[in-house]
Predict the 3D structure of the following.
Amino acid sequence: MKMDRDALNVFLAQDFPEVAHMFRVDAAQPNALTLRLLPSPAHLRPGGTVSGPTLFALADVAVYLTILSMIGPKALTVTTNAGMDFMRKPPAGVDLLCETRLLKLGRVLAVGDALIYAEGDTRPAARASMTYSIPPKG
Amino acid sequence: MKMDRDALNVFLAQDFPEVAHMFRVDAAQPNALTLRLLPSPAHLRPGGTVSGPTLFALADVAVYLTILSMIGPKALTVTTNAGMDFMRKPPAGVDLLCETRLLKLGRVLAVGDALIYAEGDTRPAARASMTYSIPPKG
Amino acid sequence: MKMDRDALNVFLAQDFPEVAHMFRVDAAQPNALTLRLLPSPAHLRPGGTVSGPTLFALADVAVYLTILSMIGPKALTVTTNAGMDFMRKPPAGVDLLCETRLLKLGRVLAVGDALIYAEGDTRPAARASMTYSIPPKG
Amino acid sequence: MKMDRDALNVFLAQDFPEVAHMFRVDAAQPNALTLRLLPSPAHLRPGGTVSGPTLFALADVAVYLTILSMIGPKALTVTTNAGMDFMRKPPAGVDLLCETRLLKLGRVLAVGDALIYAEGDTRPAARASMTYSIPPKG
């Protein structure tokens, strides 16, 4: 690993200040991490459920940080494909936890997937798979 | 059609006040519409490009409104699956246009897809396909 | 569980005779199973790698059987959405193993995902997520 | 265009003899083509509907040929991601037509999508989006 939990949280605060307050890396190990969403009213839909775009952002940032934990900070890495299944509405007022797995870390493409849980629930609220293009060295 | 362009814009303002300022339905016809994203600084990433979650929100709201244009306002309709390809970084300072097609409007599931363009560019910035679960009558 | 490993293999032979010779359920537990692909020349591309449609069939049958293991044989259950990432070409002459997880088993929709490995390799060759529509009772 | 309709059909017969009998390019223009599936009993499920893996193969071959029509025969181009929605069961005994669009043709990635119709039906039976990795020159 090139970046551990603390290094990832520092990277998030420095490079993504506009969203860093939403997220906190709770745990990181090789090829996997847990990212916590700290919901604020701006992320909620009527009824108190977390919005789809917020779930997307959670999965996207989580898999992105999982890649960076292995290759170091390469800010040009970009999302090229995303697939999500929304399976259960997360309840209001509960943190969401996103657990990732890095499935491929190639020379030009990286693929990971993630499950999102409402904290304390064993059934996933959403599933995501994400592909990133890694810029060439040079 | 159960709701035309003006009715959709009114619905957006009344039922989704937290995001209505971001979007405007430019045109609506049976099974298709064009939704405009009016970018604000909150939607931008460093370098001025529109963020992934904002592109997701644009596609999700656009296909959702396309369904409602045909079945009328059913606020319980929920996104169950989303797939997106991010193909070109949209430039800063330009409105984005999302053009939708409704591909299936079934009893329990509706499927649509969308292309997102930076205004004035003929090459799509992103592609999305979305599935929604429609609540049973009763 | 409504069907165990042996019951699933019997179901496969009886209800899907045209593909049953390709597949064998190696293990089944609640909400998860391992399906083995027994490759034949018809599934190979030039160079000896397993074709994309064969990988699709493997994931589709595997998640489908995982659902049936929990709800019993409902032959009308149909695939409505599929997402796959092809990450490493599986080598020729090796069985493929598909390991599934059932993520949601709802009243009308079921969602599962799967990883496909070449036997003996710890790195996944492909990833799949699948949604099925379950026919109403009655 | 580097390959027109006739060149694509010749390429299919020479480079993919194991599936060439299933497919025929009906029309090709820049960034788009129509591929016809000539169903045989091997592609059918009980009830006479075309199987999911056959629909996958149809979309995969169709978008792949669309890319090759623009860049010429590069047999190493490989599918990296596929997303499909299965919307209506195609009827038995009818040819299927797959209409593609090339959405991005980059240096390392190409993206296209497709709609599949039963011949004579205006409502799509399935939708697909496909990403391919293009090998570097060298």
Remarks:
- The CA atoms of residues 43 and 53 of chain A lie 8 Å apart.
- Chain A has a mean pLDDT of 92.
- Helices of chain A lie at 5-15, 17-20, 52-71.
- DSSP finds three helices and six strands in chain A.
